[in-house]
């Protein structure tokens, strides 16, 4: 069996740099096993994408990470009810002994299918089909539709599994005090499980991957402190996506600030967890982006420290007195900043600085959205070998490369203005002490 280092090297060949992967592996490995991650799996993935799902979970197991997996059986149970002639909308039929036997059988079968696949791949999985979720029925819903409420989460089976080095695979099945079993659904079960375990990561796996906007573009990061209300107000937001965000907002409010929710597909799970770029939608409680109209309200030593950390070099000595500052967007933590200056009729993005840690948290994306929402016309430059340029190209409406620099712009359409912006950007003197490095828009 390959050792974790060999697996990491294999991953690097496909996903990204060693530094990124090892940074995340170190973070995850420092977390207590049962608090690493809760991974929610819908029944549709078990039916249609079992091998990819098991492969991704196996990778985590092989590098020494043991998530707690909770799954549903929606499509499979629906098919079983139809085959048995049971109407799931009829309360009496759905709670009959014949129906409950179908629930037990389907959950057991699907749970073991995943565990067996994990075992075939070399991972150690342990089936847990009961004994975790104590639930009760809401009296108001009797005679209408089955509604369950989880009143307690018992972790003995989870603790035992993790101590043995196995990955617990939980069925989203609850039991009442009277012994009745309830199909809780994976969303409700994962939510209650996360509140109980307080994990570092919650991963919602779905075939479609991350959330997408009105154009079908991936919402790579959501900073709830900044983005939650604006997103809910978007006319293109579907009711299901709005509901999902509301549930995530509620969940993260009950977890440590460091916790986050990732929404991705099984085949891209490793990329989502181990690279800054990710592969799906990363949702965090986040932090506020503060707009400063002048330098007077800015902690200049902290801002200078941020620039030095992001670019590997400090700003020139007279930077804060030389530049005609227009707006400065700063994260509360001073881990991300966008500095706009007046270099003509169009605002110039003189610096866009994000620390490596903040890149992994999606703060840069939230900062960019806030800045461009309030300042839609911008231009900026970056060294041609800047590793952040692909990110800039995705967000710019146009670009021009001349010599050592690439000039980008957004919101500008007429050629004379574009030409003026390009000339101003190329002629601007350096504002860092030495050669620019990571993420420099200077």
Automatic annotation (TrEMBL):
The record marks 40, 244 as: Transition state stabilizer. Its EC number is 2.7.2.8. Keywords: Amino-acid biosynthesis, Arginine biosynthesis, ATP-binding, Kinase, Nucleotide-binding, Transferase. In the N-terminal section; belongs to the acetylglutamate kinase family. ArgB subfamily. GO terms for cellular component: cytoplasm. It comes from Nannocystis pusilla. GO terms for molecular function: acetylglutamate kinase activity; ATP binding; L-glutamate N-acetyltransferase activity. Transmembrane segments: none annotated. Pathway: Amino-acid biosynthesis; L-arginine biosynthesis; N(2)-acetyl-L-ornithine from L-glutamate: step 2/4. It comes from the Bacteria. GO terms for biological process: L-arginine biosynthetic process. It catalyses: N-acetyl-L-glutamate + ATP = N-acetyl-L-glutamyl 5-phosphate + ADP. This is Acetylglutamate kinase. It is an enzyme of class 2 (transferase). InterPro entries: AceGlu_kinase-like_sf (IPR036393), Acyl_CoA_acyltransferase (IPR016181), ArgB_GNAT (IPR011242), Asp/Glu/Uridylate_kinase (IPR001048), Vertebrate-like_GNAT_dom (IPR006855). Pfam families: AA_kinase, NAT. CDD domains: DUF619-NAGS (cd04264). Residues 287-433 form the N-acetyltransferase domain.
